[in-house]
């Protein structure tokens, strides 16, 4: 989203070779940039260089035209009151929705100004299906604009699954990705998500009954201190109920309603990662996959997510933000970079804010410079870090830095011992 592009320049870089203790007589040799991990005898360790020379083509960008992910917060209304909701949604009767004028202005800007050949549009909330007519209208308008601009468009939705059954077929036919929130088996889910298990389970089962939909669905599990110990059992439950399911596990964040909840709190990082590791053989046995946000093989990136360039997110008030967890931030927030003027049909960016996002790169975190796990965590989620300590959070290592390092090391060992890459 930031700068003039220069394609195809070639530069020579030195790639760090990490030597990680493994067993008494063996070490792991890890080259994150190349995605390679090896096992060597310690007697041969001195023969392994500290760096290797590599040539690559680079792409630099400094403007706000490389938009890839357009996220539309259709409404802040919600038909649930989940105990940890980042936006405290569903707690009051008053609500706001994104106007079609603002949506049209944003879509025309993105399709005719983005340098990307593909635009990913995601519907978010609140609960986006509460504005069903808007979902349908935006989808059809976007397809028309994609044809006119010569771009490809894909669609995704994040939903709590509490909507009428007759909408399932339309979603199956029109969405490329569907993230549905189910926090576990009934007792866990009902305690955390407003006793909604029976409704969402029925919808999820109906979705999975369409063969063309199975690969589109991701089950999103928010893990609290109350549910963390059951991660292996939750993996087994979903693996049996939804064969070959793709399961996304993230710890509860201290944002919104989750900030002052003394019963449902973020899980211990060490316990969260320990239970994910315990669940890997379960997932492998059942043919499903489990992921969390730092299980990513992203050696080419310096940012944790699309916060530095790819993300353009629009709130019901017309704020332009770069992180979905910061939808309720005020104009002073570093995550708020502008506003949509629907009447004048233009997007107004705060250029200094956009430049300020460059702070959210791992090059600005000293502890990341020689860390073998940096390729995966990228300094960890800026929104979560800002919630833990807002002062200069972009310069600090993650509050769970040591736990992440140990977790990534164990994932590399899993890769070696099972001959199966667990990172993606």
Secondary structure layout:
Blueprint: E1 6-16, E2 18-23, E3 26-31, E4 36-41, E5 51-60, E6 69-73, H1 100-113, E7 118-124, H2 132-149, E8 152-159, H3 168-174, E9 177-181, H4 186-192, H5 197-208, E10 217-223, H6 231-241, E11 246-251, H7 269-286, E12 289-291, E13 311-314, E14 319-321, E15 336-341, E16 346-349, H8 351-356, H9 374-377, H10 382-388, H11 401-418
Parallel strand pairs: 6-7, 6-13, 7-8, 8-9, 9-10, 10-11, 11-12
Antiparallel strand pairs: 1-5, 2-3, 3-4, 13-14, 14-15, 15-16
Helix pairs in contact: 1-2, 6-7, 7-11
Task: Give a brief description.
This protein has 424 residues and is α/β, with parallel strands linked by helices.
Describe this structure in words.
With 424 residues, this protein is α/β, with parallel strands linked by helices. The chain folds into 3 domains: 6-59, no CATH class; 69-291, Aldolase class I (TIM Barrel, Alpha-Beta Barrel), CATH 3.20.20; 361-424, no CATH class. Helix content is 29%, strand content 23%. It has 11 helices and 16 strands. It has helices spanning 100-113, 132-149, 168-174, 186-192, 197-208, 231-241, 269-286, 351-356, 374-377, 382-388, 401-418; strands at residues 6-16, 18-23, 26-31, 36-41, 51-60, 69-73, 118-124, 152-159, 177-181, 217-223, 246-251, 289-291, 311-314, 319-321, 336-341, 346-349. The strands form 3 sheets. The chain has an 11-stranded mixed beta sheet with strand order 12-11-10-9-8-7-6-13-14-15-16. Strand 15 and strand 16 (346-349) form a beta hairpin. Helix 1 packs parallel to helix 2, helix 6 (231-241) runs parallel beside helix 7 (269-286) and helix 7 (269-286) packs parallel to helix 11. The longest helix has 18 residues, at 132-149. It is globular and about 70 Å long. The model is unreliable at 1-8 and 59-63 (pLDDT under 50).
């Amino acid at each position: 989203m930031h700068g003039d592009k220069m394609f195809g320049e070639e530069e020579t870089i030195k790639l760090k070779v990490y030597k990680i203790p493994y067993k008494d007589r063996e070490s792991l040799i890890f080259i994150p940039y190349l995605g390679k991990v090896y096992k060597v005898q310690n007697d041969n360790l001195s023969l392994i260089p500290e760096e290797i020379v590599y040539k690559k083509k680079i792409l630099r960008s400094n403007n706000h035209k490389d938009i890839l992910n357009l996220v539309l917060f259709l409404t802040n209304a919600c038909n649930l009151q989940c105990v940890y909701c980042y936006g405290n949604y569903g707690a009051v009767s008053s609500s706001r929705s994104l106007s079609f004028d603002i949506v049209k202005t944003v879509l025309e800007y993105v399709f005719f100004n983005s340098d990307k050949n593909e635009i990913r549009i995601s519907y978010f909330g609140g609960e986006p299906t509460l504005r069903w007519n808007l979902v349908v209208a935006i989808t059809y308008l976007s397809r028309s604009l994609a044809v006119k601009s010569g771009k490809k468009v894909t669609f995704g939705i994040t939903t709590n699954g509490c909507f009428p059954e007759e909408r399932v077929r339309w979603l199956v036919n029109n969405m490329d990705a569907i993230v549905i929130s189910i926090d576990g088996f009934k007792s866990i889910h009902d305690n955390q998500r407003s006793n909604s298990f029976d409704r969402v389970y029925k919808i999820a089962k109906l979705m999975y009954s369409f063969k063309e939909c199975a690969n589109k669905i991701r089950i999103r599990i928010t893990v609290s201190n109350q549910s963390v110990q059951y991660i292996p059992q939750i993996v087994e439950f979903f693996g049996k109920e939804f064969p070959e399911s793709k399961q996304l596990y993230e710890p509860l964040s201290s944002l919104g309603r989750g900030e002052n909840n003394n019963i449902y709190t973020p899980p211990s990082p060490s316990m969260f990662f320990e239970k994910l590791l315990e669940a890997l053989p379960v997932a492998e046995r059942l043919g499903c996959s489990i992921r969390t946000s730092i299980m990513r093989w992203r050696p080419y990136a310096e940012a944790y997510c699309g916060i530095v360039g790819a993300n353009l997110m629009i709130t019901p008030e017309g704020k332009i933000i770069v992180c979905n967890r910061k939808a309720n931030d005020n104009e002073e927030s570093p995550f708020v970079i502008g506003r949509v003027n629907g009447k004048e049909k233009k997007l107004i960016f705060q250029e200094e804010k956009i430049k300020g996002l460059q702070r959210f790169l791992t090059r600005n975190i000293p502890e990341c410079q020689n860390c073998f796990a940096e390729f995966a965590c990228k300094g960890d989620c800026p929104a979560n870090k800002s919630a833990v300590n807002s002062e200069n959070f972009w310069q600090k290592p993650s509050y769970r830095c040591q736990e992440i390092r140990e977790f990534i090391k164990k994932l590399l060992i899993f890769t070696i011992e099972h001959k199966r890459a667990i990172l993606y």
